[in-house]
Specification:
The complex is a heterodimer. Chain A is α+β, with helices and mostly antiparallel strands. Chain A contains eleven helices and 14 strands. In chain A, the strands form two sheets. Chain A has an eight-stranded antiparallel sheet with strand order 4-9-10-11-12-13-14-8. Chain A has a six-stranded antiparallel sheet with strand order 1-2-3-5-6-7. By secondary structure, chain B is an alpha/beta fold. Classes of the chains: A alpha+beta, B alpha/beta. Chains A and B meet through helix 2, helix 6, helix 7, helix 8 and strand 9 of A and helix 3, helix 5, helix 6, strand 8 and helix 10 of B.
């Protein structure tokens, strides 16, 4: 390396240290050195080596050290073959593992707006999920004709999950807008400090009336408060009565979702979850509709959950579970409602004295779901 | 009597270094936080409820613990002290780095007291932070001790409630209050307290503009207000104002202009909650122009904006027409930082959804070689 170069590097170091004295951003890195290049090469080698499937050649070269046993994917379900028939629908670019036939679902692409549309097909059934960003202002304006109330803060109106039977044409879909169509016209629930708030307003008005009797009130903003009324009532908790958008003819059934088939360690071919809408109720809690889906070789489970927490008032959960048996084309839909007083759950947490942060548990939807009673349950099937 | 005491600049620089030069950022020890908070409190005691500020200044909306996106703001908009910043509140909750975010802002405020200004949002409150994540984050990051949360929430009580820019623009977190017609009514408040449920102080951090109405409306939630065109016109007229700038409401585009720029929303948390896919912005106010006739109107299409238009973005240009701002103003729009992206793909949850700590697995050997977390596909055996 010539002296000039060295001098340059020295002077550049000086300038960086000079700029350090003011508030600088991290990320000033020195140039690439030979040692880095070698390290990078080594990393690439390790990386590509690690990606290669354990082939027979590596087995014959007798790898030293213990080889971790493969996780048992053998299902105890009779008839479940270790390499189930998994077909890939058109438009789905997901590759299959050459080894086990497992569909490789890539991590979500790091692009904004987030766009990924993985899909999978098993036997007669195709499963689509679409995840998109929240609606923009133009899309929201277009919805003004459809919804005559303030919409939730975050609406993932372009996200959806859809299950279709290619043969019979049966389908069931979950999306935010159809869920919002199913709201009640109003809600009897109010935030915890509602009474207190109204009282203070009332006393303010009385005070004002007294003032008016005594002296001439200047015309100011208070004139608006006279006409003060709420906007058209609507269900501000956004509690949907939504069991999916479907053409399947469901009838009430005694056949429950077979839990034993969902608890066995079948491989998950496909998993996805997304939020459909969410509102923080002006920081009085949370109202959220989300879905989760997992596809196994012989069946799938979809859970669309509405979770409502109004701080110091109530918990409410409305779960729609859809179970599909791929062999029998059987669809079971389980809808249940749960509700519980906030104070009751808080009491029981304090009784059990779980940690010093009970509100952390209240953000865990699964925990709340397991700890509050069910008030209503309907099971239906297509057969 | 407390002795006026200032933390040496070198110490503050050290704090900034801890937060900025490490990845992930190093949190400050509790004693340091206590010290910083105490010093800042004594300084804020003499700051009026509405700070009189001057242009040029950049206004930042909600950040919500998205530390890396805050750094992104300094990256695109210039960093203090070369750029003046007014932050409109909601620094904590929901994001993963509330502790780092508020620590950085406190340190910056102390380091550059005449360049950085912080006002209070609805999340700068004890009750809200226990419900929406900041409290839990402090417990997690400080070995189960809530000490740091106490210091910081105590400091929140001292933050001012609003600011004026060149005496013509009023900035607050939320919006207007029916109990407040004059800025002097805000100036006369005793702000050194927890945010109450009602009254001027509550409305300033809670209320929202609504283009559908003219006056004030009660929110159907039972507390809180919406304000309309007549209200803002009267308030501006009575107080010799041109405009109100506020944050508080998520929007896909990162900003909203109401009533031809009379009221602006600035939102600075891109890909909010690591799932909304929204953009964010910083409102740059270069100068105040006395002319009201050339008030912008969002009447142009975003697609019409060419790169060259950004040269005179503060003047009467197409950018101006798209954004609906006053002369001398510009919404600098940005997208999520690579770190936000990373946290999104890791699938960590906010507000309790899928908060799977297990994901931080040890991974394969080459992952640890890369000193990176493996990008595992999240799969869940939910029921």
């Amino acid at each position: 390396m010539s002296q000039d170069n060295q001098e340059q590097s020295v002077s550049s170091k000086e300038s960086t240290s000079k700029s350090k004295t003011v508030f600088t951003m991290p990320g000033n890195r020195p140039g690439i050195q030979a040692v880095h290049v070698n390290a990078a090469r080594e990393m690439v080698r390790l990386h590509t080596q690690g990606r290669r499937p354990p082939s027979s050649t590596t087995a014959s070269t007798a790898v030293k050290g213990p080889v971790p046993p493969l996780p048992s994917t053998a299902s105890s379900f009779p008839g479940a073959s270790p390499h189930p028939h998994v077909s890939i629908p058109e438009g789905c670019k997901n590759p299959q593992c050459t080894h086990c036939g497992k569909v490789i679902i890539p991590a979500p692409q790091s692009s904004y707006p987030i766009q990924d549309t993985p899909a999978i097909a098993v036997k007669n059934w195709k499963i689509y999920t679409i995840k998109k960003p929240i609606l923009n202002s133009t899309e929201l304006e277009d919805l003004e004709a459809r919804f005559h109330f303030p919409l939730p803060e975050m609406i993932f109106g372009n996200s959806r999950v859809k299950i279709v039977n290619e043969v019979s044409g049966e389908s069931i879909e979950f999306n935010a807008l159809d869920a919002l169509d199913s709201l009640d016209s109003e809600s009897h629930l109010k935030v915890s400090y509602h009474k207190e708030w109204l009282d203070s307003r009332r006393s303010e008005r009385e005070k004002k009336e007294k003032e008016e009797r005594g002296e001439v009130e200047s015309r100011d903003l208070r004139e608006f408060t006279d006409k003060l009324d709420t906007i058209e009532p609507y269900d501000w908790t956004y509690s949907p009565n939504y069991k999916g958008t479907t053409n399947i003819k469901f009838s009430e059934s005694s056949q429950e979702i077979p839990i034993h088939r969902l608890t066995q360690p079948d491989p998950i071919l496909f998993f996805d979850e997304a939020v459909l809408f969410e509102d923080e109720l002006a920081d009085n809690g949370i109202s959220i509709l989300n879905y989760k889906i997992r596809v196994m070789p012989t069946c799938l489970l979809l859970l669309c959950r509405f979770y409502l927490r109004i701080d110091n008032v109530i918990f409410r959960i409305r779960d729609t579970r859809v179970f599909v048996d791929f062999d029998q084309d059987l669809v079971i839909r389980d809808y249940r409602q749960q509700e519980y007083e906030y104070s009751e759950l808080l009491k029981s947490v304090q009784r059990k004295s779980i940690g010093n942060d009970p509100k952390k548990l209240f953000r865990d939807h699964d925990w709340v779901s397991k700890n509050i009673p069910t008030i209503n349950k309907v099971v239906e099937s297509n057969q | 009597m407390t002795i006026p005491y200032n933390i040496p600049i070198s110490d503050l620089d050290y704090c900034l270094e801890q937060l900025l030069d490490h990845k992930p950022p190093k949190i400050l020890p509790p004693e340091t936080i206590q010290h910083l908070c105490h010093t800042l409190k004594t300084q804020l005691l003499s700051v009026p409820n509405i700070m009189p500020l001057q242009s040029p200044i950049s206004i930042v909306g909600d950040i919500h613990g998205q530390f890396h996106d805050l750094l992104e703001i300094f990256q695109i908009g210039g960093s203090p002290p070369s750029t003046n910043y007014l932050f409109l509140g909601d620094y904590v909750d929901r994001g993963y780095y509330s502790v780092e975010t508020i620590s950085l802002l406190i340190a910056l405020k102390l380091r550059y007291p005449d360049r950085v200004f912080l006002i209070r949002g609805n999340h700068e409150s004890r009750t809200i932070t226990t419900n929406y994540g900041f409290y839990t984050e402090v417990l997690n990051k400080y070995n189960g001790s809530a000490e740091v949360w106490t210091y910081i929430t105590d400091l929140f009580d001292y933050l001012p409630l609003g600011a004026t820019i060149d005496g013509k623009i009023f900035a607050a977190h939320g919006g207007l209050s029916p109990s407040c017609q004059q800025l002097d009514q805000i100036r006369a408040l005793d702000r050194f307290r927890e945010i109450p449920h009602d009254g001027i102080m509550a409305d300033l951090v809670w209320s929202d503009p609504d283009t559908e109405i003219l006056d004030f409306k009660l929110s159907p939630r039972g507390a809180g207000y919406l304000f309309g065109l007549d209200v803002i016109n009267k308030f501006c007229h009575d107080n010799d104002l041109m405009q109100m700038v506020r944050a508080h409401q998520l929007c896909n585009e990162g900003y909203t202009s109401y009533w031809k720029g009379k009221c602006l929303t600035v939102w600075s948390a891109p890909n909010y909650c690591y799932r909304c896919g929204n953009r964010a912005s910083v409102l740059e106010i270069l100068y105040y122009s006395g002319e009201s006739k050339s008030m912008g109107e969002p009447n142009a299409n975003e697609n019409d904006v060419k790169y060259d238009d950004y040269k005179n973005r503060f003047e009467d240009s197409i950018v101006h027409k798209v954004q609906g701002v006053l002369p001398g103003q510009f919404f600098n729009i940005f997208e999520a930082s690579p770190e936000n992206d990373e946290d999104t793909s890791k699938g960590k949850g906010v507000n309790g959804i899928n908060s799977d700590e297990e994901l931080v697995g040890n991974g394969d050997f080459f992952c640890s070689y890369f000193k990176e977390r493996p990008r595992k596909q999240h799969v869940e055996y939910f029921l």
